[in-house]
Amino acid sequence: MTAQLIDGVALSKQVRTEVAQRAAALTAKGVKPGLAVVLVGDNQASQVYVRNKVKACEDAGLHSVLEKYEATMSEADLLARVEALNNDPAIHGILVQLPLPKHIDDHKVIEAISPEKDVDGFHVASAGALMVGEKGFKACTPYGCMKMLESIGMKDLKGKHAVVIGRSNIVGKPMAMMLLQANATVTVCHSGTADLGAMTRQADVVVAAVGKRNVLTADMVKPGAVVIDVGMNRNDEGKLCGDVDFDGVKEVAGWITPVPGGVGPMTITMLLVNTLESAERAAS
Ligand code: GUN
User: Fold this and answer.
1) CB 3.0-4.6 Å disulfide test: which of 20, 93, 228, 266 passes with 35?
2) Which residues contact 185 (CB under 8 A, 6 or more apart)?
3) Cα(114)–Cα(132) distance, rounded to whole angstroms?
4) Above 90 in pLDDT, residue 49?
5) Alpha carbon distance 57, 33 (integer Å)
6) pTM of this prediction?
7) Domains in the chain, start-ordered, CATH in brackets?
8) Can you tell me whether residue 177 is helix, strand or coil?
9) What are the φ/ψ torsions at residue 33 (nearest 5 degrees)?
């Protein structure tokens, strides 16, 4: 069996077109959705990420502001910038790019963002809202994975077993909560799991979010399962690859996301969705 691809580029295009239409309608009413992206320091990967986020905003007709600061910026100054953006009516979403320089407390900065503008979904209030099923911003990467499942007719996962590999606050934990909310039976595996393959072989849906190559190989996958690869790694030739042994697993799985061109573009897409929804809430 050869798996079907879940194309994150094509799905992103479709969702971004809808975002652009809704953004244009809101702009016509006098509210242009606005995202502020804050980058502190000169981390190479972060520079690429923030550039892509700002460009995606522009392409969808959203207002975006990129604030770049030296790595020496003090925590107090960054907190003051966040506060100013909280009070700026032209800004509906605030994203402080992580990682921050070591002298700045990530958690303190994230918690300073108003939950009404927390389009990353990283604030404790956003995580808590997801946990209890209240309205709040959903973390973009797992939210994108849910959209991908929806796109293949798997919006309701009643009767399905989903296995999440990874327990980070940014992906693994919110992913588990979203799958649970979609009625899946959910297992979260991590570095302390005794027999990962025994778990994943029971799964109808596997989400790999560890940040390590070949975490999931063909022998660990139930035939026909849906495999979502959140990993972003480099192979020995320097080529981008995920956490899943794509060539092996695609012969067993029913559906699989590629890397690149899978979850990655969906993460930015859901950031646009969150920013648009924040503006729509502010306008209503
Ligand atoms: N660093 C890597 N990914 C992300 C993300 O999605 N949001 C933020 N704020 N920082 C990141």
Assistant:
1) 93
2) 160, 161, 162
3) 19
4) yes
5) 9
6) 0.97
7) 29-114 (3.40.50.10860), 140-263 (3.40.50.720)
8) helix
9) -60, 135
Residue 43 pLDDT exceeds 90: yes
Q: How far is the CA of 222 from the centre of ligand 1 (A)?
A: 32
Are residues 31 and 279 in contact, defined by beta-carbon separation less than 8 angstroms? yes
176: left (phi over 0), alpha (psi -120 to 50) or beta: alpha
Alpha-carbon distance 215 to 97, whole Å?
Answer: 27
Question: Which amino acid does the sequence have at 133?
Answer: G
Distance, CA of 91 to CA of 37 (rounded, Å):
10
At 16, is the secondary structure helix, strand, or coil? helix
Q: Closest residue (by CA) to atom 3 of ligand 1?
A: 98
Residues in the chain: 284
Which residue numbers are catalytic? 53, 97, 120
What is the maximum span of the chain, computed from C-alpha positions, in angstroms?
A: 56
Q: What DSSP state is assigned to residue 100? A: P
- Please write the tens of the pLDDT for every residue from 80-89: 999 999 999 9
Ligand 1 atom 2 nearest Cα: 98
